[in-house]
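Example record used in the benchmark description.
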Amino acid sequence: MSDLSTLPTAISCLEQGDVILYPTEAVYGLGCDPDNQQAVEKLLAIKQRPVEKGLILIADNYGQLLKYVDDAKLPMDKRADIFSSWPGAITWVMPAAKNTPKWLTGQFDTIAVRVTNHPSVKRLCQQLGKPLVSTSANLTGQPTVTSIDQAKQQFEDKVGCYIDEPLGGNTQPSTIKDAMTGKVFRG
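Model output (structure tokens):
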């Protein structure tokens, strides 16, 4: 476990398959490299979350998400709603690309994705060159941790790096919407 204020340390943790704790728009998140199955499995074990539920990917820009999203299936009439909401705290459930791993999509043929406006996460994704897995920093069914000290008490050395930077100021986790229908899953 390391305290860090430097981006290179966080990137090193991610590249080594570690799980990191970092600030998002409203809550602290647990994240890892979405292409590293062992890292994702480690994150799910820490969170005590079943793989079937699927995960969110958070990115610096939509281009980073194209590997995971079946962009051709996004209806033209829905694109304005999606892209005008980004960057921001709106997560869209989109058709998953054929090769998107089940450790990310779970039991679904969709994937939840967000383009963030949080500066810390943007820097992480820019340096890593890809999105991060993003899930709230809590054990499944428990309240989300609201401080780095609380996170360290709960996760101890299970998390490779703690990024002690401010949250984005939102009071609620991201809204989650279906990109195909506009239905709100979490408001």
